[in-house]
Amino acid sequence: MRRASSTGCPGARLARDQAHHRGIQDRGIGRVTFLDTNVFIHFLGREHRLRDEARAQLQRLLQRGTHLATSAAVLQELLHYYHRDQRVGDLDNAFALVESCVDEIWTVGKEDVETARNLVSTHPGLEARDLVHLACCIRRQPRDLLTFDRALAAAWQSQR
After folding, report:
1. Can you give the residue ranges of every domain in the chain?
2. If residue 42 lies in a helix (H) or strand (E), which one and from where to where?
3. Is the terminal CB of the chain with fewer CB neighbours within 10 Å at N or C?
4. What's the pTM?
5. What dihedral angle (degrees, nearest 10) is formed by the CA atoms of 41, 42, 48, 53?
6. 53-103: pLDDT as tens digits
């Protein structure tokens, strides 16, 4: 997925100098970071300490030229999160943010779901969606996973 500029979205200012960013990105492909759903939610959310942290973390990754990835499961979670409260404008902003900063959206296949199922006994505290995120990361081996979910972060560290 290519980074796109999107006016009106808070994420657009992160990718203003796309040509410069692409030059950095080309040198940093080996540095893939998976972005969890809560990164986008906190980035766009109300005044909160995690909002500032999400913005700072994402800005840092972009400045370093880190190749950013997320998955179709994250997009589905964003759809669920904003649709359940009829927050269509926020949903549009979330998708625009993903479009403006994510380089790649991973598909979720049968093998990811089977891996998630096999991880249930190892990580019984994780919800199904987090098991799917973990399975996607195990298959694709990003260098890092950015999340504000302590259980998912701990599970990722234990799998590395």
Report:
1. 10-106+144-152
2. helix 37-44
3. C
4. 0.81
5. 180
6. 999 999 999 999 999 999 999 999 999 999 988 888 899 999 999 999 999
Amino acid at 158: S
Asked if residue 145 lies in contact with residue 157, where contact means CB atoms within 8 angstroms, the answer is no
Q: Report the CATH fold assignment for 10-106+144-152.
A: Rossmann fold (3.40.50)
Q: Token pair of 79, please? A: 């759809």
Give 105's contacts (C-beta < 8 A, 6+ positions apart): 1, 69, 70, 71, 72, 75, 98
Residues 87-124 as b or e (16 or more Cβ within 10 Å = b):
eeebbebbbbbbbbbbbebbebeeebbebbeebeeebe
Q: pLDDT (tens digit, 9 = 90+) per residue, 132-159?
A: 999 999 999 999 999 999 999 999 999 8
Residue at token pair 């998976």 = 34
Give the list of residues 6+ apart from residue 47 with CB closer than 8 angstroms, or none: none
